[in-house]
Every structure is written in C-alpha cells, then in structure tokens.
Design a protein that fits this description.
Blueprint: H1 2-24, E1 30-37, E2 43-44, E3 49-53, E4 60-70, E5 78-88, E6 92-101, E7 116-121, E8 125-127, E9 132-139, E10 145-146, E11 149-158
Antiparallel strand pairs: 1-11, 2-10, 3-9, 4-7, 4-8, 4-11, 5-6, 5-9
C-alpha cells in the first residue's frame, strides 16, 4: 500500500512539474526548466540526471538553479549536489558544488505524502551564442542511496541586464 501511494504521489508530482515546465519555458531568456524523477526509495550515487542544454541564441551571463523535491522520508536538513555543465562551440566545462537547504516538513506530513520544494542557486556563468551541451546533476553525500528525494530539477536563464 505504501509503495503504491509513493508511486502515485511521484506520478502526480511529475505530471504537475511537466505542466509547470511547459508553461515556463516560453520565456526566451530561459534555456532549461525541467525536472527529472528519482525513486523515493533512494537516489543512488550512480543515478546521474542528464539535462540537455539547447543552443544559446543570445550570448550573456546566465544564472542556474537546482530544485529538489523531497518528502518526509528525506533524513537530512541539507543535500550536497554536484552540477557539471559540458558546453560545445567553444568547449567549456563548469563544475559546481552547491549545498541545498531542505525545507523542513511539518508534523502533519510525517506519512510522506507531501512534497517539499527546495531550491539553491548555481554560480553565474557566461555562455556564448551557438553553444549547446549537457548538464549532469548528482548528489555527493557519503550515503550511497538517499531516500525521500522524488525529483530533481534544473533551471537556467539569462540574467537581466542592469
């Protein structure tokens, strides 16, 4: 019963994020805005999430953000995440480590039904027009498998000119 409930909760969250991502990606300044599902039973160290970076149409400074959706089963108050951006034309690699503070769950949500969104910014980077690439996101905790993470997302958008 609990496993079925977790699967149903994950499916509903995925559906909601897809609808949300579709409505937000219409902004021309947004390169990436999407979430990938992770098994609530455990985000394994070997489960690297891969995001495609479409062609950059306008050179400039871009700001990234990593989002983590957790439930009450997540055992920590923070999560350390590695983000590796591999870009082409010209070839560039950005490797960032971020610490994301996890939103604490309320006592009413100890059954693990609710999802909590925590976001953390990535450093700003300069992208060149015509660049494409991939972004890999992975956890860098000591524990091999971390329970309670349902989705991990990435958003990269242009920083508005002052």
């Amino acid at each position: 019963m609990k496993k079925t409930l977790n699967i149903l909760t994950g499916f509903c969250a995925l559906l909601a994020s897809l609808v949300g991502a579709g409505s937000c990606c219409n902004e021309p300044s947004t390169l990436v805005y999407e979430y990938r599902p992770v098994s609530f039973e455990g985000w394994n160290k070997t489960d690297t999430l891969l995001f495609s970076l479409p062609e950059v149409t306008q050179a400039g400074v871009y700001q990234g953000k990593v989002g983590v959706r957790t439930n009450a089963c997540y055992p920590y108050q923070k999560i350390w995440i590695g983000v590796c951006q591999t870009l082409h034309q010209p070839d560039t690699v950005f490797l960032d480590t971020v610490c994301c503070e996890i939103v604490p769950c309320s006592d009413l949500d100890k059954n693990g039904i609710g999802l909590f969104l925590s976001e953390c910014p990535l450093p700003e980077h300069t992208y060149q027009a015509g660049q494409t690439g991939t972004v890999k996101v992975f956890h860098i905790l000591r524990r091999e498998e971390v329970p309670g993470v349902g989705q991990v997302g990435l958003q990269i958008q242009a920083v508005p000119a002052p």
